Queue: 2 jobs
Job 1
Amino acid sequence: MTEFNFVNPKNITVGDELPVLTKHVTQEMINRWAEVSGDFNPLHVDPEFGRKTQFGTNIAHGPLSLSFLIEMLTRWLGKPWLVGGRLYDLKLISPVPPDTKLTIGGRVLSTDADKRQVECEVFVKNEDEKLVITGKASCRF
């Protein structure tokens, strides 16, 4: 069983780097996401079809990459994220082909003790450090 060391909200300060999560996106992972979501668009599940597209390959579903942000934030904040967290201002910038290594992270932008809230910028980058997703996250404790 995975153990998590959730951050104490009192110890969060502006400028803190969020703990980095790394993921290796595989075709199997993409296919499993298609099964869960019911989205069997050939752009995602058919490599031959993908080669004929503007991307030159099939690509992961956008929500699959977004789910890594949720995983990273859950590992960092725990239950408060699941109860009072939200992602917003999200931009899906670059496609994610199979066999791509991703880095998921972020930085604390602000904290508000009165509102018991933290706001962060978040990102997903590929192995070339190219941004795949950018956005913001906020959480109330």
Job 2
Amino acid sequence: MNDTPDKEEHPSIDNANRRQIKAILYASAAFFILLGILGMIFSERASELTGLGETARYFSIAMFCVGIFDLIIFSIMFNKGEKNND
């Protein structure tokens, strides 16, 4: 027996999974942005403590850019998916 429900019987399952995936991906992008911002704020303090200030600053800028890039890609990806479902 097949235990998975048919999409015809439960169309909301696909929508719920899609919303969960979207929330996880946007949360990961927000995490990268937050990591980048916090790193930029505290990179001067890291420079005083460890001497890795410039490296920490570049890493923070890279994390911030990754987060922004993720947001752009996810927005494009989900907008195309929603247009195709209509």
